[in-house]
Amino acid sequence: MTDANTDTEPGRVETTRPEPPHRPSIDEVGDLARTVIGNTEQVIVGSHDAIEHIVTAMLGRGHVLLEDVPGVGKTMLARAIARSFESSFSRVQFTPDLLPSDVTGTNVFNQKTREFEFRPGPIFANVVLGDEINRAPPKTQSALLEAMEESQVTVDGTTHALEQPFTVIATQNAIERNRTYELPVAEVDRFMKRLELGYPEPDAESAMLDRTVGTHPIERLEPVATLDQLRGARAAVGEITVKGPIREYVTRLANYTRERAELGVSPRGSLSVLRAAQARAALDGRGYVIPDDVKREAAVTLAHRVRPASGADRTGRDVIEAALSAVRVE
Asked: What tens digit of pLDDT does each residue of 29-65 get?
């Protein structure tokens, strides 16, 4: 990634953008998604739904939060997805002493030129794995906010655009609550999907042990899709038809949660579920969204944005399930 000429507005550095991608057909998008899913399943066994959700999130221009107990394959899943594309990949191990500049990059003084030069941080990659993101304090976590929402970072008053596509896949430690920090609501809301892997079924775990007892299959995994293909697929997904009744249905779902929870689904959440539904439609070979697409994506796309009233004996997922049962498609 190279900086463009400085004939732009003061205080802003633009980066080169790729040429507009070839726009594939919906069938081609579905074939690409299934190829990536199958490739990832050479490494990850028994997590088909989770893999599918991550791939559709990438097609829908979203980010993913993986939360579960240690050792169920969250990090390996993110690595396998990233390796399936010919893309740049970086991993950030979040720790209590990690600084925001360790993520975004910093300006370094060059003794030869007598000028400051920007050294990009690990956020400058197509796929960024934030490992155990809640081990870092909120100040460091906030380094991701601008990048996830606007695909850019600002350092010392200068804005640097991130190369597209850009996806954050973050894992969260769900066990050691006394040694971790709670993610800010604004950060959680920037994740299109929140997933839990759970423990594998006995057969799947046995198959995983058989594959990994020697050389780990991640070391042999080869890319099956290019960045241009991913860019084109994302553009095609963004053109999938979402008719008025579908938009109104999502709006009613969001309003239902706002009326029955301390914190309901945000407008960003409504947009996220529609983008996820577009990707789901592409996976199913359709050029238009149907209510079932929204329903299949609602739990993983909306539940983490809902905060039930204090003392309420239900979770965000419970609120979303109640909304899906109560709100009718008109």
From this structure: 999 999 999 999 998 888 899 999 999 999 999 999 9
Alpha-carbon radius of gyration of the chain: 20
Is residue 196 a contact partner of residue 68, using CB atoms and an 8 Å limit? yes
Instruction: Provide the CATH topology of domain 16-230.
Output: Rossmann fold (3.40.50)
Burial of 171 (0-12, 13-18, 19+ CB in 10 A): buried
Contacts of 46 (CB under 8 A, 6+ apart): 200, 201, 203, 204, 205, 207, 208
Task: Sketch the domain layout of the chain as residue ranges.
Answer: 16-230, 240-326
Q: What is the pLDDT of residues 72-95, one digit of tens each?
A: 778 888 889 989 998 889 999 999
Amino acid at 253: L
Task: Determine phi and psi for 131, rounding to 5 degrees.
Answer: -85, 125
Q: Is the dihedral of CA 88, 66, 96, 181 positive or negative?
A: positive
Rounded Cα gap, residues 53 and 193, in angstroms: 8
CB atoms within 10 A of CB 167: 25
Please give the Cα distance from 18 to 163 (Å, whole number): 8
Q: Which of 89, 43, 35 is nearest to 220 (CA)?
A: 43
Phi, psi of 323 (to 5 degrees): -65, -45
| CATH H-level superfamily of 240-326 | Magnesium chelatase subunit I, C-Terminal domain (1.10.8.80)
Instruction: Please identify every stretch of the chain with a pLDDT value under 50, giving residue numbers as ranges.
Output: 1-17
